[in-house]
Amino acid sequence: MKIGRWLIAGAVVAVVIWKADDIIGTDKQQSAAPPAVTESASASSSAGSGDSSTNDGTESPEPSATPTSEHASPSSSGDAASSGSPAATPEASEKPSNAADESEDSGDSDSLSALLQLNAPDKTIEVGKNGVATVTNPESMLVLVNKKRELSSTYAPDDLVKPDVEFSFSGDSPKQKMRKTAASALEKLFAGAQKDGITLKAVSGYRSYATQKSIFSRNADLKGEEVANRTSARPGQSEHQTGLAMDVSSASANYELEPKFGDTKEGKWLAAHCAEYGFIIRFLNGEEDVTGYSYEPWHVRYVGKEAAKQIMKQGVTLEAYLEAAANGATKA
Ligand SMILES: [Zn+2]
Fold first, then answer.
1. Which residue range is the domain that position 231 belongs to?
2. How do residues 28-53 score in pLDDT, each as one tens digit?
3. Which residues are CB-contacts of 44 (< 8 A; sequence separation ≥ 6)?
4. Is residue 332 part of a domain?
5. In terms of CB atoms within 10 Å, which end of the chain has fewer, N or C?
6. What is the tally of structural domains in the chain?
7. Residue 331, domain member (yes or no)
8. Rounded distance, CA 230 to CA 316, Å?
9. Which residues lie near ion ligand 1 (Cβ < 5 Å)?
10. Domain assignment present for 256
């Protein structure tokens, strides 16, 4: 079967091109140290509390309407944000030498091209009898998840860890987690921001299928299914289930997940620099027809540095980028 062949080819490439393993995300080498903390689909309900209205079903505080908050001084809310200390602890952020980490998806454009071919949208989808299209490469850093391409209800990453960054809330929650490579990259991103005087806080990362399901159901109960479908992701259709996405906000946006974050200096810094760390702004302004979601300047998605730089430089969606790459239009 075709897909099987691609999977095998993918595994071979991943082994051969060791340094590029973070792009394809097969990551097998890195999961040698098993995360004691894997959240399975049972991660459940509690994480979803208080969530609301953002497109990807994220869990912003209440759908508060605070139109003027973007100009609020950082010190006015959450003073932790104004502390001068680095966002991430030294342990995590000052260790650039982790070769196996996310850092070196070096400039080998041939390997990226190969990975892009392997992860081409039309080669990474399987349509079931029920008509649902499920992605076949959920572990890839280039996996494409959207309303037309679902993750299996049983998929949960096996290398989830809690990045050592500041969060907008206290206490422990499964939504603090990301896959190991993405978590490490997020630590570097936040540390890099801090160096530029920008304090970011993480709001919501991993979300299990079960959690997403409960969020969607609640929204459907509250607002009706049609509205819920516009304002939150159906289970399986949220990128948060990949463990590669994190919602990020700042004191200046009251840690809300609202488009106004894009207008803050933190939001602008994030858009300008996230690619250096392997992240993209996944839901671009004006690309709703392509992504299925409206502008979300707070939602960053890890794809690996080289792909991220190309995507952000070209100003395209992940959908368009992968499609173009598959058609041979992207030569690095
Ligand atoms: Zn999000």
1. 2-326
2. 333 334 444 333 333 333 333 333 33
3. 208, 210, 211, 214
4. no
5. N
6. 1
7. no
8. 22
9. 56, 58, 247, 299
10. yes
